[in-house]
Amino acid sequence: SQTIHQWPATLVQPVGSPLSLECTVEGTSNPNLYWYRQAAGRGLQLLFYSVGIGQISSEVPQNLSASRPQDRQFILSSKKLLLSDSGFYLCAWSVDLFGPEAFFGQGTRLTVV
Amino acid sequence: DAKTTQPTSMDCAEGRAANLPCNHSTISGNEYVYWYRQIHSQGPQYIIHGLKNNETNEMASLIITEDRKSSTLILPHATLRDTAVYYCIVRVGTNAGGTSYGKLTFGQGTILTVHP
Q: How many helices (H) and strands (E) does chain B have?
């Protein structure tokens, strides 16, 4: 069966520090991968999606970047964190371009102080 | 993707049916209705989806009106563990073409609280 791993579960980082969140998927090949963010009291916002290795699409301009160095690995990064980057970050995958459902990881709660 | 409107919050007694409405009056012919839920501090979980026929699975039933402008998610026997935020999402589905890439646009959802 397919599983998605996301780590760390919680993270506290100072303003101006770098960020690297990693997500890996097991049990499937060539998944579509996504990074979402959920700010406190708000809905989920799609940040990035990827349909293949090295292919990244950004949904909103921001202080973050994403990379996909391997088929089942998706990384969310920042060179210098801002206070506004705090939130709940979720990685997700779907089977194909028109897959009916997406599967989410357990999320990383990032607090920038 | 079409916009959806859901009530901010709802309450339900344990063991009773929970009926969660969703309005999607601008839905297009090739757009499906999806429901996800998010339990506190966890990732969203897929529940069910449909195009125009009513659908049922082990988790819930989905009732879509004939004009497809609204739908209702039904949890037949709500339990305390069903307390969560429920999201109604409309997007293009299988074989629809375009470049949706499985993107899901989440609104604010409905906070369902199941009481003992």
A: 0, 9
